[in-house]
Amino acid sequence: MNPSKDFLDSCEGGNVFSNMVNTLINPEHHHQFINIGDDHLHDTWEEAEAEAHLDHFAEHWDAHNPNLEDIWANPESHNQLEEAWHENPGQLDPMLEKEYIKETAGSIMYALSAQNDPKFQNSEFFKFVERLHSGKAKIQDGQVVEDFGDVWNEPAHKEQEKVWNGLTEEEKSYFDQVWKETHPEDEEEINEEELLKQWGAAWDKPQENEILKDNPYESTIENPFELAQLKLQQGHYADAIALLEIAVKREPENSAAWLLYGKAFSDVDRDDRASFCFKSGLAIDPYNIDQLLCMCTSSVNTYDHNLLAEYFTRWITLNSEYSGLIVPEGATLEILQQIYMTASEINPNDPNVYMAMGIMEFVANNYYAAEYYFEMASKFKPGDVDIINKIGVAMTKQGKYEEAAEVFKACVDIKPGFVKAWVNLGLNIINFEGDYKRGIECFLIAATVYPSDHLFEYCRTYLKLMDREDLIPLLDRKDPSALEGEFEIVYPLRGKF
Amino acid sequence: MALKSEKLFESMTPHLAAVGKDLVAKIGAVFHFEILSAPGAEPAWFTVDLKNGNGAIAKGKQGTADATFTLTDDDLIAVSNGTLNPQVAFMQGKMKIKGNMAKATKFTPDVLPKNVKL
Fold it and tell me: Which branch of life, at top level (chain A) (predicted)?
């Protein structure tokens, strides 16, 4: 026999009361109720309280609640509820609602306990309803809220507290340990606010490189732009970037300075900043085709592909050498590939056309073809580390790790301060050999040239993966030499003036 | 217009081949990403499984997620480029999170692909 059905039958069908009961009794709804609450809290509660509380229940019941017939027999309270419900469904007066839920829960409990079936009395639902009734659990805004308020003042708990306080620290920590071991989830769920705070901190990258806090150069320095060019040739990126910062501040309309500033950032693996510089330069001089091509590379590196077709269209349209080529409006990268192919027939010696073709193949995931075009570009611009690095990247993408490693090494042989190649070499080593240590060494070497936050971020990730979290405090000093004891670090710029 | 995020997720695969096993040991969660090309647009789904085997990236919803992130294409790229902190995005309501919060906070910069750059 189905007791809940039996109980429902005993209520008059169709009225609010029986609907409410129905909601609580229906196993499906019951499931929802439990789920909208905090399961974890629920479980903890259960363990601490299940036994003791069942006893309390009997007392509570007698003291607090008339039997079902009595509630039911009072048509006044009944009508009152009914009216309130109709006026504002779902939003009963809070006090009324609270009582209503308590009463309803009480009635359900009565009905269930009347069945005298331990299956019901020990069920999760029964215990839940019991807490609703006693006010230890409340429903607020559709959420189950547990109230531990009185429980701790009850004698049984006072007793437990005494026992706990009498324990030695050692015993306490033993119990803590056992609790943690048996309740691994508790720790994690304890404080959502704290979790969120830690999460935010994990992502927080101070943008201290955006504007240098301590620019080593006087803002009155003469010819910062010319000096920066010299520093870039020597691979002194930190100096070059500091000088260019002064240059663009002094002459914000100097598109050539923005171009060089962007290239410097691109070389130190900061395509986010590079994009900003190239965009600033293009805003001043939309016809600067060198700037356009650089912008394409940075767009790919920052996953910002949407304007690529437009940049390639502008590059070929603005290039007087290819003025005979007509690019249809809204040309896609596929169409542009054909047009650039024609351009390479018009002038088979233009490294920039090959570079553009390489980038387009790269975006289309045709890494073999990309490698070929970058090789062609390199042929007509030998020794250009920017192009050689691109060959290495196309190789890595094909899984040709050993060849790629040689190419990246060749880059830093030519230009020891070329951060991007050091970073690519490190990632290549990790992806190929899973050798975190040598990978981290590459990032640290890169950081000796230009200490970007993302380099330390990479080190942090791989230190964790190699189970060397103990080194993170040293890493946080943001000084690569602090890790010299653990890693072999070379200083590409040492002794170069 | 193809989603930028698709490229981002694509580039995670070779990274996982190398470090997936160790990442799985540290992260131990399955994430679903519901990516909108614009607010209110039809979403595209991606699954980042850093719980099983060597980890896996897949288009669509695979398996059960420990946490689901809903955000726009541009915002995910901003997160990946380090210009948007996902915790801030969550607080500002730019990003929605469903599921286990403790697992959601396992989505850290460690999870992002570290990609070789042109």
Answer: Eukaryota
Taking contacts as CB-CB distances below 8 angstroms, the residues of chain B near A392 are 116
Instruction: Compare all CA atoms of chain A with the CA of B37 and give the residue at the minimum distance.
Output: A306
- B39 — pLDDT class (breaks 50, 70, 90): confident
Q: What residue ranges of chain A are covered by domains with CATH 1.25.40.10? A: 212-304, 398-496
Q: Which pTM was predicted?
A: 0.68
pLDDT tens digits, one per residue of A158-216: 666 667 677 777 777 777 777 666 665 555 455 778 888 888 888 776 554 455 667 77
pLDDT band, very low/low/confident/very high, at A51 (cuts 50, 70, 90): very low
Element spanning A140, H or E:
strand A137-140
pLDDT tens-digit readout, A372-409? 999 999 999 999 999 999 999 999 999 899 999 999 99
Residues 30-89 in B contacting A (C-alpha not used; CB under 8 Å): 77, 79-83, 85-88
Fold (CATH) for A212-304: 1.25.40
Smallest CA–CA separation between A158 and chain B, in Å? 33
Region A398-496: CATH code: 1.25.40.10
Taking a contact as any Cβ pair under 8 Å apart, which residues of chain A between 182 and 201 contact chain B?
Answer: 185, 188-189, 192, 195-200
Q: What CATH number labels B4-103?
A: 3.30.1050.10
Residue-by-residue DSSP string for A256-324? HHHHHHHHHHHHTT-HHHHHHHHHHHHHH-TT-HHHHHHHHHHHHHTT--TTHHHHHHHHHHH-GGGTT
Q: Residue A12: its pLDDT value, please? A: 39
Q: Are A387 and A407 in contact (CB under 8 A)?
A: no
User: B88: burial class by Cβ within 10 Å (0-12, 13-18, 19+)?
Assistant: middle
Task: Find the closest chain B residue to A385 by CA distance.
Answer: B118
CB–CB of A199 and B79 under 8 A?
no
